[in-house]
Amino acid sequence: MASSSFSVVSFSSVNTELSVIRLSSRQNLVPLNPRRQCLGIFHRLDRNYRSISASVSSPVQKVSSSSSQLPPDELAASILSKVMQTDRGVTLTREQHMQVADLVSELNKYCVDSPVKCPLIFGDWDVVYCSNPTSPGGGFRSGLGRLVFKTTEMVQAVEAPDIVRNKVSFSALGFLDGEVSLKGKLIVLDEKWIKVVFERPELKIGSLEFGFGGQSEVQLEITYIDDKLRLGKGSRGSLFVFQRR
Fold first, then answer.
1. How would DSSP label each residue in 129-193?
2. Fewest CB atoms within 10 Å of the CB: 60, 121, 187, 213?
3. pTM for the predicted model, two decimal places
4. What is the CATH T-level fold of the domain 72-244, as seen in this structure?
5. pLDDT for 145-203, tens place per residue?
């Protein structure tokens, strides 16, 4: 924009100055010094340019500290601080989800080479965040489902050598407790990816307990793990944050 405006002003100023030269020459019939006149023109053009340059200010960008400068324990703490008390990510804005994704991406750089072989994967884990609220819990975590079933607990237990148990506990209509549980077999696909084949879900509401639906399977990449935190990414790109119980 600055160069375009300068060009218009420059040519306009030159035409004006040349018109003044012609008019002055005709009226006063006094010969002009071409060198002095040209210097006058360029001096005026320089003032115009400086005036335009001063009026066009470059936006000042605020420099923020990069999350890449944080050590792993601080990155993990920062992730947890952003996802806790958010109903596992449901109440976060799009911008806040992006902030979590950035922190997760940085912490992933510190992952061990073969996380599926790391014994730290075994244990009981709270699911504290998912970038897609309906990924864990299915219909119970949909917009309508959350109105009826308030999630009170979401746990994944990984038992040696190859058992995975998922459990979603809820309160139906605010007074009737229940839970959905799944048991699956863990299959290692490579150094980071696993597949879990689940049996049909079991639903328990009050004293009632019954199975429903059919078998299912999921694939998950373990992108980071330590003694307190585990990060994962689903086959469709959903991000998960697990905190050891």
1. EESSTTTTTGGGGSHHHHHHEEEEEEEEEEETTTEEEEEEEEEETTTEEEEEEEEEEEEE-SSSE
2. 60
3. 0.70
4. Lipocalin (2.40.128)
5. 777 778 889 999 999 999 999 999 998 887 889 999 999 999 999 999 999 999 999 99
